[in-house]
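Fill in residues.
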């Protein structure tokens, strides 16, 4: 059994982690103005999952407005809000949730700094539209003097040997030896069944996704808040990096999962996919199943014809 880490049930400024079982608005109302440096969350998407009633889109937006407005009140000057969302699906049509929520954030005077595309490779296979393989994180700041440290989240340079070819630095290496800015398209594996962090929750954040935000948008000991906490990932990303975490969750079974995971994380025992780990490459890993059967077997004439039309190489017979 891991040692019990102290998790408070109510917000107090000197706690390390606070887990509120219940509605996020009740949690937010108990937090003083401007106490929080980073608010990061993935709200329910109104898809009728077990933890949400499917609402009319206007009602959904109004519910979100209440939460976002309270988040704005507790957010410190120079702090950030990151809302991670995908799409509603209505009669087969998609509605990007960030487009619906943008006016709420901007109406509060928050400034958007990035619309980060979170690209992943696994999900539902669609038959009447292209399969969705990204969601977004809309990042807003309160004020212009905001915390942003890119160094802890730099990624390896593509061409580290590149040199200046003219000007006063000609011949010197031109790139930053700490790595490059990761840009606003992040490929991070989503938490599906083979992911080391997978629990019973249907839509968990990967820890590494939130760690990028925690490391770049907060300082040690700052508060990170997640109003829709699920399995506790945002608190985990915070405490793994010396920050404090607070969140609310309505379902008891996810509160229990969050407690267990936070305790494991505090003891350094939670299995986590590390931030710098490259995305799995089946070819590089020598996976079998890489040979397409229709390239060696001509019992599939229709597929072969299709491939002959679309591939630049000859089909083996
Ligand atoms: C999209 S999931 C978030 C999962 C989370 N990012 C994680 O890593 O596990 C949304 C969560 O919000 C919870 N929830 C829904 N309405 C809530 C409310 N009003 N207050 C607090 N939690 C709520 C749901 O039970 C669900 O677990």
């Amino acid at each position: 059994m891991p040692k019990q880490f102290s998790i408070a049930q109510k917000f107090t400024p000197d706690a390390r982690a606070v887990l509120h079982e219940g509605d996020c608005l009740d949690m937010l109302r108990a937090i003083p103005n401007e106490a929080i440096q980073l608010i990061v969350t993935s709200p329910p998407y109104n898809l009728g999952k077990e933890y949400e009633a499917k609402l009319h889109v206007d009602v959904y937006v109004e519910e979100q407005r209440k939460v976002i407005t309270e988040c704005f009140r507790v957010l410190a000057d120079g702090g950030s809000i990151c809302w991670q969302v995908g799409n509603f699906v209505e009669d087969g049509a998609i509605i990007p949730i960030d487009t619906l929520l943008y006016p709420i954030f901007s109406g509060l005077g928050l400034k958007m700094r990035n619309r980060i595309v979170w690209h992943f490779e696994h999900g539902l296979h669609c038959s009447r539209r292209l399969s969705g393989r990204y969601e977004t994180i809309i990042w807003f700041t309160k004020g212009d003097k905001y915390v942003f440290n890119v160094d802890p989240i730099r990624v390896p340079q593509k061409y580290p040997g590149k040199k200046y070819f003219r000007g006063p630095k000609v011949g010197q290496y031109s790139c930053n030896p700490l790595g490059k800015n990761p840009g606003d398209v992040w490929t991070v594996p989503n938490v599906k069944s083979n992911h080391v962090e997978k629990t019973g929750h249907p839509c968990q954040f990967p820890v590494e996704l939130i760690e990028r935000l925690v490391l770049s948008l907060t300082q040690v000991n700052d508060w990170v808040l997640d109003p829709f906490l699920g399995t506790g990932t945002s608190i985990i990303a915070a405490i793994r990096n010396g920050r404090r975490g607070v969140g609310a969750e309505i379902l008891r079974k996810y509160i229990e999962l969050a407690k267990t995971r936070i305790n494991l994380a505090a003891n350094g025992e939670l299995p986590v996919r590390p931030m710098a780990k490259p995305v799995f490459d089946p070819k590089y890993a020598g996976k079998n199943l890489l040979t397409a059967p229709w390239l060696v077997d001509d019992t599939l004439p229709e597929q072969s014809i299709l491939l002959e039309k679309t591939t630049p190489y000859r089909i083996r017979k």
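The radius of gyration is 22 Å.
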